Every structure is written in structure tokens, then in C-alpha cells.
């Protein structure tokens, strides 16, 4: 069967899509080119435009788009399965539907990459800060664990001493923006314009699927799952805003979120960040020395231990049969996008923190 014979109107779309994908692959093959021309120039301005277009909307427009796309996909699937069982889809029509599906996937792939995905191939924050020797040994890891242990205890004490309570969702997002404004004074490349951070419309669903936040590359919106424990949410906000700035890889978004949070004057953001990073470091130590990991947990002040218990309880109450499958799929998505460690990429922030400490002498 000839594509030309059955799809004469769409053969040019196929040719164009194929050529654009090839151009994207060629362009993305050079990280210097991506950093200089795409991430620092085109994407920087384009992302500001997206946040301007969708940021004023009080709800997540991207979540609505996802819902409509899901409904359309479900309707199409059910319709075609029914026709298939009724044997009302002839061979030519089936081939056309399959070709249309692949063309749609190609178009989505192109839009995803132009709007954001090429950032996976940038040089990134380690390059911008000239961080070298990101590899580390067990002694480095234990050193970091001790530093973060002291930080998480001290920041929790500061929160308690100041009698701070967690703000509204709107105020939390405003404070996250302010933290980037403070970080920009030290790191100009962290300039953040046009706030576009929303509460996820699928927060409760996310609790059972295991996500705390996500970035929508098609609308430029960052979504926070505001149903998770409050002490997690400040760092989730700065992490997702890092994605908006073009730091696509999860370890980089973790590190940029850390830079924004700890350079603010907000102790709630300090605690949220150090809490999460301590968990990452402690988990890494456990792989090499489980005894040291347990001893570090015992040295946490009671109030931090209470938060760990609350987090464990929350996770236990929201277990589902789908979460392992979702985690597996997302892990493979990360691997396909230059993150071979999969879900473990989040933990890879510890290497950047160690390199940062060795260069700047602070955490």
C-alpha cells in the first residue's frame, strides 16, 4: 500500500514533520548551542510570553486542556474499539487511523520540544555556576548529611521561634516569586518574570499517583499539589518554578529551587528545602551505610521527627495500585530525556550540593 495513494493530502505534513524532527535532533546534539541560542535566548523570552498569556487565569488552564485531551482520547478509543469488534473498520480506514495517530504524536513531540523539551540538552546550572567534580564518595555524602542535619534542625527552630504559620495558597506563591527575586540579585540568570504558578486541579488524584507538582510545557504554567503536607509546599513551588526557567532535568530543578529558597529571607522556605534535601542525602547514605543513616535520623529534633512521621503517614494513607505503574512510566520518561537514573535523578541533587559546598563553602 502506498502512502501517496491513500494519504495524498497528508504526505506533505508527514514530510514537514519528519524534517522538523530531524532539525530538532541536529540542533539539540550540541549542548553549547542549546544553552546559548535556545535556553538563554529563545526559551527565556518565549516562556515569559507563555506566563504572560496564561498567568492571569486564576486556575490551571493546562489542567483543563489535559482533561479535555483525556476525554477526547477516551472517546476515540472506545469508539474505535466498538467499530473494531463490529468489524466496521476496513483495512484502508484502519491504516489511515493509525497513520493519523502517529502524525498527531509527531506534532505533539515537535510542539513539546520547541516549547520546552530542548532544555533537556542544555548545559545547565552546573555550567552556569562552574561546578566541577559532581562525583562524590561516601565521606562527601556523610559530610553533606551532617551539614543538612544541622540546617534542617536550625531552620525548624527558627520557624518555631518566630511562631510562623503556613500562608494561603496565593501568599505561598507570592513568597516563592519573592524568593526568586532575592536569588536573582546573586544569580542574574534566575530572573523570573510574569508569575504563573497554580494549584493543581488534580491534587487528590496526585496524592494517590505520587506527584507533588508538575510543569505544563504547553502553557508554561507550574502546578503545585496543595493537598500534600504544608511543610513540603514551599520547596515544591521553587522546584516547579525552576522548570519554568528552563531547568528541565529534575536534579537541576531541585538545585535551582534550593538556590531560590535559601537565598530568600523566609524561614518557611528554608525549612521546607532543607527538610527535603536532608531526606535525599539521608536516603543516599542509607545505600552505603544504613547505620549512619539511622543515627542521623535520631539526631533530628522532635519537631522535625514529627514532620517525617506526618509525611510517612500521608504516603501510607494514599497508596494505590496505580502508583508503581505511574512511577515506572515517569522513570522511563526521564530516561528518554537524558536522565539515565530515572526516578533516582531527583536524588542526584546531592552531587551538585557537594560540589557547590566545596566551591562556595556554604549550603
Major sheet attributes: 3 strands, mixed
Q: How many DSSP helices?
A: 16
Q: Which ranges are low-confidence, i.e. pLDDT below 50, for 5 or more consecutive residues?
A: none
**Radius of gyration, Cα only, in angstroms?**
23 Å
Secondary-structure-based class equals mainly alpha
Q: Order of strands in the sheet with the most strands?
A: 1-3-2
Shape: globular
Write down the domain tally.
2
For the record, give the distance between the C-alpha atoms at the N and C termini, rounded to a whole number: 63 Å
Q: Estimate the helix proportion, in percent.
A: 55-70%
Task: Quote the average pLDDT.
Answer: 89
Estimate what percentage of residues fall within beta strands: under 5%
- Quantity of strands, as a count: 3
How would you sum up this structure, described in words?
- The chain is mostly helical and 363 residues long.
- It has helices spanning 3-6, 11-28, 31-54, 61-85, 91-115, 125-128, 138-161, 169-186, 203-209, 233-244, 250-262, 267-288, 290-298, 302-317, 323-336, 349-360; strands at residues 197-199, 213-216, 221-224.
- The chain has two domains: 3-121, no CATH class; 125-360, no CATH class.
- The protein has a three-stranded mixed sheet with strand order 1-3-2.
- The N and C termini lie far apart (63 Å).
- The mean pLDDT is 89.
Amino acid at each position: 500500500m502506498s502512502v501517496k495513494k491513500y494519504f495524498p493530502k497528508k504526505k506533505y505534513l508527514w514530510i514537514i514533520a519528519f524534517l522538523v524532527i530531524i532539525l530538532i535532533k541536529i540542533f539539540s546534539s550540541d549542548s553549547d548551542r542549546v544553552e546559548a541560542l535556545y535556553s538563554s535566548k529563545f526559551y527565556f523570552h518565549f516562556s515569559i510570553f507563555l506566563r504572560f498569556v496564561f498567568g492571569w487565569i486564576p486556575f490551571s488552564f493546562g489542567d483543563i486542556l489535559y482533561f479535555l485531551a483525556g476525554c477526547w482520547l477516551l472517546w476515540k478509543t472506545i469508539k474505535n474499539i466498538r467499530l473494531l469488534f463490529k468489524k466496521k473498520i476496513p483495512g484502508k480506514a484502519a491504516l489511515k487511523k493509525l497513520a493519523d495517530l502517529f502524525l498527531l504524536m509527531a506534532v505533539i513531540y515537535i510542539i513539546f520540544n520547541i516549547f520546552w523539551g530542548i532544555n533537556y540538552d542544555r548545559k545547565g546550572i552546573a555550567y552556569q555556576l562552574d561546578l566541577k567534580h559532581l562525583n562524590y564518595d561516601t565521606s562527601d555524602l556523610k559530610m553533606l548529611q551532617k551539614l543538612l542535619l544541622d540546617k534542617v534542625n536550625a531552620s525548624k527552630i527558627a520557624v518555631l521561634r518566630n511562631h510562623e504559620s503556613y500562608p494561603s495558597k496565593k501568599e505561598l506563591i507570592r513568597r516563592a516569586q519573592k524568593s526568586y527575586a532575592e536569588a536573582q540579585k546573586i544569580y542574574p540568570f534566575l530572573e523570573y518574570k510574569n508569575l504563573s504558578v497554580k494549584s493543581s486541579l488534580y491534587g487528590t488524584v496526585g496524592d494517590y499517583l505520587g506527584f507533588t507538582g508538575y510543569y505544563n510545557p504547553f502553557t508554561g504554567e507550574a502546578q503545585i499539589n496543595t493537598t500534600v503536607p504544608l511543610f513540603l509546599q514551599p520547596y515544591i513551588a521553587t522546584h516547579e518554578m525552576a522548570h519554568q526557567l528552563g531547568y528541565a532535568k529534575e536534579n537541576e530543578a531541585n538545585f535551582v529551587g534550593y538556590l531560590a529558597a535559601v537565598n530568600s529571607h523566609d524561614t518557611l522556605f528554608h525549612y521546607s528545602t532543607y527538610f527535603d534535601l536532608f531526606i535525599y542525602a539521608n536516603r543516599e547514605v542509607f545505600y552505603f551505610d544504613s547505620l549512619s543513616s539511622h543515627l542521623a535520623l535520631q539526631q533530628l529534633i522532635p519537631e522535625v521527627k514529627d514532620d517525617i512521621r506526618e509525611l510517612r503517614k500521608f504516603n501510607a494513607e494514599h497508596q494505590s495500585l496505580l502508583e508503581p505503574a505511574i512511577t515506572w512510566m515517569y522513570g522511563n520518561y526521564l530516561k528518554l530525556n537524558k536522565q539515565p537514573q530515572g526516578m533516582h535523578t531527583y536524588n542526584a541533587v546531592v552531587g551538585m550540593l557537594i560540589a557547590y559546598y566545596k566551591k562556595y563553602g556554604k549550603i
